[in-house]
Model the fold of this input.
Amino acid sequence: MTLALAHARAMTLELARHPAYVVPTLAFPAVFFLFFAAPASGDAAVRMATFAGFAAIGVAFFQFGVGIAVERASPWETYLRTLPAGVTVRLVARLCSAAVFAGAAAAIVVAVALAVGGVALPAGAWAEVAGVLAGGTIPFALLGVAIGYWAPARGALPIANLLYLGLSYGGGLWVRPERLPRLVQRVSPLLPTRALADALTRATAGGGPPARSLAALAVFAVAFAGLAALGYRRDEGRRYG
Amino acid sequence: MTVASLAAVTKRFGAVTALDDVSFAVGQGDVLALLGPNGAGKSTAIAVLLGLRAPDAGSTELFGLDPRRPSARCAVGVVPQETAFPQTLRVFELIDLVRRHFPDPLALPELAGRLGLGPLLRRQLGGLSGGERRLVAVALAFAGAPRLLVLDEPTAALDGDTRSRVWEAVRQHADGGGSVLLTTHHLAEAEALARRVVVLERGVVTADSDVADLRRSAGLTRVSYRGGSGSVSVDVDDAGALVASLVRRGVPLVDLEVRPLTLEEALAANRHRG
Done:
């Protein structure tokens, strides 16, 4: 575990010193919130929670998806394989580092939402929203891992962007699902982001997350984990077979 | 005691056979140079030895273990042929990360002193020159105080002074009982460091010998001089007889030099003999 934390620290330092990573990752969701969600009508707490979800899954897509794909093509990753550490060390490290950035990105959205005003959450709802954010990001982290192992280094960024923005919109993280175009509304319930949006919306009421949304997120997590495992095995065979 | 070995290893990439029934071993205290032209299979052999590639046939051991097990790599320091580092990390941060993988690593000041890394330690890796990055790669190989160094063209892109420091560090490692497996295109480097050479050509081992034995097996001495018809350089079995004959014939011997063959010349002579 100490070794994984050392890798996590190095990964976090490395990314934190790249403005090209930090600024979009941390600032983009908050700016997006300011432009589009803050002036909108409706429940401010729900908008804050879903945009915090949008911020957190962005880190999952980019730090796992793009990060793994780029590292796979780098001699640095091959060098790391010569060190006496298993692949789980790097995976745990990436998870810890992503948690730092995802937490920071979500916190900035929350801070902006509180600064704009209108957010009123029952006391227990804050913990519930945080719990749904933490658990609900897992399927997207696994989807990110799958992208990382299936996509080529140069294709990972556009693929991650396309899925991130498309799923965020279609799932109702930006606008309430009932305000989406009719065609998108039909597809929306099939998306993992919709399950996350529903779970976050419910959590803001403090009444406990809906079992159905959590079950849907769990199913997506299993499916994406399978996809990631297949991608990992394929990549291992190609590069290290 | 063998610290690393390839036994009858064959490795194919599609229709290309990169290694064909290759066997060699690195013993404790050995400094073995793996030589051969581009595409001979040197880097593939190292990749198989380190567990980065699985052999199609044959077996590999690192300290008696399958090299794919992380515990087999606890006492190995590696300089890969290609290097790329996290750009914004500082040199000391990277060395610290690598040191943490090993049970009894070298202290940072000792490592920095040995390789002259001091001025680089606080610099970000992305700002280093190619030679400086190569030196950092060498430092990482030493960082864990390994028993076996695997160096794939370690001094490529290094200037003369830095190369000498790296050679000295490798010699110091070997003098302390450590083992070294080295690939290089510079036979002078192999000659300066190695006690044994394994020559690979098209994936096949064509020579496995002590450096001294290899020179001896060539059985030749190089005689060079400027005579009446210009500069002459010949490899002969009996240099004394040649020089005596030239003197008898009254050939002017200006800048006469008689010396044993270099490793490169000995390899060429052996290749020539088939």
Remarks:
- Residues 219-273 of chain B form one domain.
- DSSP finds nine helices and twelve strands in chain B.
- The radius of gyration of chain B is 22 Å.
